Amino acid sequence: MSKSTVTCAILLMASALLRSSWAQESPVPPKFSFPPGAEITFQWNYTCRDGKPCAFSCGSADRVKALTMYLGTIPVGNNQRNSVIFYFYSTATIPYSDGFRISGGPASTLSCDTSGMTLDYAGPPIEIPMPPGGAPNTR
Fold first, then answer.
1. Structural domains in the chain (count)
2. What pTM does this model have?
3. Which mean pLDDT values do the consecutive 10-residue runs of the chain (139 residues) have?
């Protein structure tokens, strides 16, 4: 086997190990479910790599290792839906934490900020926690 073939094989194995270790940083708890009637439309997964100082402002957490956020809507009152962001994160000292942010209605804004984090995925929900005895609410 040539030297370049061996080097390439080692790099491929190392990248697979790194990807699997990053995947293990997922902060979404296995028993979480969204409120009844929630419709989740978008998901972001972030990780903090290379010892960077990472943070996000939805929950105002520093030294964040991994963050998953879901954007959707929830029912509020009669026939009204408000925007919501659910977030789950882990830090160097807290293995799991969560929170949410709900907009005040159609005219209000909803925002979260990340700093120093690497975006690993953005798109339709791929990791929706299942409610007890049912299918996840997505749209």
1. 1
2. 0.70
3. 42 38 53 84 90 78 86 85 89 84 75 89 81 49
